[in-house]
Amino acid sequence: MPAVHASVLEAIGNTPIVELNRYGAGVEPLLLAKLEFTNPGGSMKDRAALGMIEWAEREHDLQPGAEIIISTSGNLGIGMAMTCAVKGYRLTCLVDPKLNPATERSLELMGVELVKVDELDHTSGYHLTRLKRLQSLQRERPDAIYLDQYDSPAAIEAHRVSTGKEILEQMEGQLDAMIMVAGTGGSSMGVASWLREYSPDTEIWLVDEKGSLALPGSKDPEPRFLNGMGTSIEPANYQADAFAGYVDHVVYIEAGAAIAASVDIARKEGVLMGGSGGAACHVMRERVAPRFGKGARLLSLIPDHGSRYTQTQFDAAWLDQMGISLPQPFSGCSP
Ligand SMILES: Cc1ncc(COP(=O)(O)O)c(C=O)c1O
Prior knowledge:
Elements: E1 17-19, E2 30-35, H1 45-60, E3 67-71, H2 75-87, E4 90-95, H3 101-109, E5 113-116, H4 127-140, E6 145-146, H5 153-170, E7 177-181, H6 186-198, E8 203-209, H7 240-246, E9 249-253, H8 255-269, H9 275-288, E10 297-302, H10 316-322
Parallel strand pairs: 2-10, 3-4, 3-6, 4-5, 7-8, 7-10, 8-9
Antiparallel strand pairs: 1-2
Helix pairs in contact: 1-2, 1-5, 5-6, 6-7, 8-9
The structure holds pyridoxal-5'-phosphate.
Pyridoxal-5'-phosphate (PLP) is lined by residues 43, 45, 73, 75-76, 181-188, 227-229, 274, 276, 303-304.
């Protein structure tokens, strides 16, 4: 690895894997976490952002000053803002009230134009409202290029050849189960595709928030609270055939259990992860670990850092307002 990078984009990837021995005390398998928040933009979406923009450069012959539009719950926006800054493109992000204040301010500081929608769609999410606004934005700005992260072979490929390959190299080929969360599907489908090819015996677990419509077969939408997880539509990234071939188990989780796991891990391991990472770790310990014995190696992909959510997921007033109660031992106390 070079000591000095030509730009921040070369610093994407090579994120560490750490053992969660204190959080995993009392369970037989080894619990591991891949900390994607050490990417320079603070999340695993840096990888997808770079892959999607490089794809657009090949397909659309992007010139400096070109405008890119995306719809994002936050992290892709940061990764894209970083990539656009280095490459000289303008970025417009369609966002909604689930965007946390820290990420919103970061996007503004990075020179991103934010277009906000605030009307809930019929699935109790904002995705469909964002798409409606996108259509009018595209009419207003015909030269802008929309990059759809929900239908993005480039995002899947980026995670396949960077995240998936990296994981198997770091694990030296010894990985019994991989636990990932469901959002647009870029990370999970990319990593799963690499693992299916080069480590076919690794069990693939997908975790989604209760009430999400992301995964094939899901129904009954309900309000959702975890950033990055849960969608109002089934993203094309979860192509039914690929999904059936890659995913062994699907688990739905409530936001309270995910957030409590993040706090628990922060206190026991000194790793403060966002609620989606907490969701993966909770499922890894409670659902996956009991199926494996000593010596097994289980790995959760941790999308981002919890410091982004001090005013939302980790704020007692916000939790109250959203009607989220944390399970024992965190119930009744400010996390
Ligand atoms: C915090 C967080 N968790 C999970 C996800 C889901 O990842 P993907 O969209 O690759 O399915 C995202 C995506 O934006 C995210 O930002």
